[in-house]
Amino acid sequence: MDESSQPGSLNDTRRPAHGWGRALVVVFALFGLVVALPAFVELARSGAGMRLPAALSSLCGVGYVVLSIAVAHNGRRMRRVGWACLVIELVGLVAVNLAGLAGSAWSDWGTSWWYLPVLLPLVGGAQLWLADPRRIVTNAERITDISDTISGTVHRDRK
């Protein structure tokens, strides 16, 4: 075989992302596990009448774990999964409180969890919106266009 027909290795020279996005991934994962694990245990131990709050807490916790994976990955499909998880979290929060169900992580607007079930989807939505690669590229192109326009104007004025 010819060496030129061999696929070359691709090196990603970009530096890894640090900052509040990574911290948010850790917070989502920890919160999801802290909510889901006791809920799974309670779901296994509870009788038929008390399974709904435990099942809802399990759903809430699993949603946050999946959301942490989606925020960490930030690909097109995972962003859709992340937005779906955020919608499920917010709809679950509103539905549980409108129905007056007690005993889940979403009950009483998350007061037993320091209002994290209300705050985390909002912060996660902001992160998904701010870290959207399409939006970032569009803004960078606008800045480049403005820069080119300004530099063209400056060069014409100098002549």
Radius of gyration: 23 Å
Q: How many extended strands?
A: 0
Helix/sheet category: mainly alpha
pLDDT average, as an integer? 85
- Percent of residues in β-strands: under 5%
Strand count, sense and barrel status of the largest sheet are: none
Helical amount among residues, as a percent range? Answer: over 70%
Order of helices and strands: HHHHH
Poorly predicted parts: none
Measured distance between first and last alpha carbons? 58 Å
Model description:
The longest helix is centred in the N-terminal third of the chain and has 26 residues, at 20-45. The chain is 72% helix and 0% strand. The protein contains 5 helices and no strands. It has one domain. The chain has 159 residues and is mostly helical. It is elongated, with a radius of gyration of 23 Å. The mean pLDDT is 85.
Which SSEs are present, and which pair or pack?
Layout: H1 20-45, H2 51-73, H3 76-99, H4 116-130, H5 133-158
Keyphrases for this structure?
mainly alpha, 159 residues, elongated
